[in-house]
Design goal:
mainly alpha; 80% helix
Length: 100
Amino acid sequence: MGSVKEYREFWESIRKRLEAFGDPSRLEREERQKYDIMLKRYRDAMATLAGAEMEGEKKGEMEGRMQVKREVAARMKSLGLSVEIIKEVTDLSEEEIAQL
């Protein structure tokens, strides 16, 4: 599967198939087993997708924070503040500051 959108659309189609079964308590044993298997796969996929989305959000937040730190450090550097002060304020390394 390609993108998260495609993955979500695929599993949405599975959810619709599950709904087509109607009331699961009225299903014959064999059909109920198929239903239960599909339902478990659907729930597992949704949990996996939710976890992946949360991980992506965390990664994005961390990247955003690092970008802000670099912008602040660059501004401080342009104002002529020492590398030691910039390190103290931003928690960036000397190497990171030198690259700005």
